[in-house]
Amino acid sequence: MNSILLKSGKEKSVFRYHPWIFSGAIAKTEGTLQEGDIVKVYSADRQFLAIGHYQIGSIAVRILSFEDTVIDHNFWRTRITEAYRKRRSLGLTDSQTNNVYRLIHGEGDNLPGLVVDIYANVAVTQFHSVGMYLERENIAKAIVEVLGNQITAIYDKSESTLPFKAAIEPKNGYLYGQAKSFIALENGLKFNVDWLEGQKTGFFIDQRENRSLLEKYARDKSVLNMFCYTGGFSFYAMRGGAHSVHSVDVSARAIELARQNVELNFPGDPRHEAFAEEAFRFLEHSYDKYDLIILDPPAFAKHQNVLNNAIQGYKKLNRKGIEVIKPGGIIFTFSCSQVMTKELFRQTVFTAAANTGRKVSILHQLTQPADHPINIYHPEGEYLKGLVLYVE
Question: For the segment 334-375, what is each residue's pLDDT rounded down to a tens digit?
């Protein structure tokens, strides 16, 4: 089998169970390595350290196991079984009011490079490494074996998630069965799932608990949902008793999806309006109009080299939100950029607030839900950060 020897002293992160080997830690490779190959990792004195998928780039190996094991069908079935048991213990696999959850969350489930979301009886997969993509048939078979008749179709949505340097041409499509887009349930509310054309796997499952919290604050408030996408926060606010809800997104397609989802839950309700408009342009005309504002933008920074630009973007957005909200208003503000730590996000929002001169308090510090677990040895997995602010 192909192998990698690390430079002296570079094995320390492996002893701390961090699931990545960086290219700069490698002293030499043995064998003819191709991207996606299974590779064993050894220390400088040839002590076995881990086994994982080799890839081109700064992250050279995504570790699958710290034990010298065989990566075969039984391996995939065992790991997926462990992940399923975790979700079952959370009460997500047989809920009467929620049929959507994340089954596999990459490093959080010791399967780096793999994401699997469940929408009722359909699994939607995304492969973020070539190694995982090459195992897609084995992984699909294991999902069917573990979930049994709970699953009728598996759809792979990896065209845009695999490294561009990889010498493969992935195409979205079904790995098992067939299904059409359908209406799913989240905490008793309905929404359309479009895994064929929608972003990510079709719906942002990671905001489920934060949407529930917002519902508790919405009564009798005028609500602005910026970057609304499919309108999740909007229809939670409506169920919470908001007297008006405005959904805003630059994408006309997203606005149409938001209108459809609101109509599913509140047909003909005049409290909701949707606008296809650029965020800052809309906020410029929003002074003293809203009691509650949601700022949930797409990731401003996906890589470390654009972090400084992202900080300025988050600062500008939060400053404008704090400036325009009514006195006594509440802001739900988020960052889903993995390279933006929660400490840095909080500091960025602090700077934005200080620039407005308004008094601001933190009511809640938010994160991703339990079906998006964070591997304790991989703090980078804590990608979703949020603050609930009270603005005097």
Answer: 999 888 899 999 999 999 999 999 999 999 999 999 999 999
**Which residue is associated with the tokens 């699909």?**
140
Decide which of 241 and 95 is more confident: 241
pTM for the whole structure: 0.93
What beta strand segments (E) does the chain contain? Answer: 3-6, 20-22, 26-30, 38-42, 48-54, 59-65, 100-105, 114-119, 122-127, 153-156, 173-177, 182-186, 189-193, 222-226, 244-249, 272-276, 292-295, 329-335, 360-366, 385-391
Task: Give me the CATH code for the 73-185 domain, please.
Answer: 3.30.750.80
- Give the pair of three-digit tokens for residue 63: 């570790």
Phi, psi (degrees; rounded to nearest 5) at 385:
-120, 140
Three-class DSSP category at 378: coil
Q: Which fold has domain 204-391?
A: Rossmann fold (3.40.50)
Non-local CB neighbours of 354 within 8 Å, separated by 6+ positions: none
Q: Which CATH number fits domain 3-65: 2.30.130.10, 3.40.50.1010, 3.65.10.10, 3.20.20.140?
A: 2.30.130.10
